[in-house]
Amino acid sequence: MALSKEQIAQRIAKEVKDGYYVNLGIGIPTLVANFVRDDISVEFQSENGVLGMGPFPFEGEEDPDLINAGKQTITALPGASFFDSAMSFGMIRGQHVDLTILGAMEVSQNGDIANWKIPGKMVKGMGGAMDLVASAENIIVAMMHTNREGESKLLKKCTLPLTGVKCVKKIVTNLAVLEIKDGKFHLLERAPGVSVEEIQKATEGDLIVNGEIKEMKF
């Protein structure tokens, strides 16, 4: 069974280590803060000028002055700090962020990412994505494996305008966990109840399958 957006975020939360500074992109990545283990200390950064974001607020407890880069209301953990965009992008460009989690419209098998523009359509804008992909050492992409027409979003070559080149290391989709290595997608895990054949069918790029592929654990 394909994962929900929340389950994708839950699986990515397992990649977050104690002491990490993590930037969460717009969309599915913003949900990751809800699933990080309680026994580790993590600082979530938002490029609009927040360090120390917590999970989303409960209904009725929202503060309209406290938002993330996607204009969603958030919470702030004790010790959180607020600053201007110049300081925020100084952190990003200075490579002080340990992990960047981004959404994507397309990813290619050599690690290119397209996540900021669909020609002829209105999107929210590129935000800090180009700075993040240019500066980050460790990028995980959270995305759906296929589009609404059932066409693969994991491609040999991206068709949309690129945000960054050869920068994505790992992808978590509603069907699988994949690593990009040597110009190919390598299948690491599959969603519960999803077969390797289904993942192969949904992947346009070259997919390497070595041995038995374990199911994701939550």
Overview of this protein structure:
- The protein is 14% helix and 25% strand.
- It has helices at 5-13, 85-93, 129-135, 196-201; strands at residues 21-24, 43-46, 50-53, 76-82, 99-103, 106-108, 113-114, 139-142, 154-155, 170-172, 176-181, 184-190, 207-208, 214-215.
- Strands 1, 2, 3, 4, 5, 8, 10, 11, 12, 13 and 14 form an eleven-stranded mixed sheet that branches. Strands 7-6-9 form a three-stranded mixed sheet, with no helix packed on it.
- Strand 12 (184-190), helix 4 (196-201) and strand 13 (207-208) form a beta-alpha-beta unit.
- The longest helix has 9 residues, at 5-13.
- The chain is globular and about 45 Å long.
What are the key terms here?
218 residues; alpha/beta; Glutaconate Coenzyme A-transferase; eleven-stranded mixed β-sheet; 4 helices
Write the layout of secondary structure elements.
Layout: H1 5-13, E1 21-24, E2 43-46, E3 50-53, E4 76-82, H2 85-93, E5 99-103, E6 106-108, E7 113-114, H3 129-135, E8 139-142, E9 154-155, E10 170-172, E11 176-181, E12 184-190, H4 196-201, E13 207-208, E14 214-215
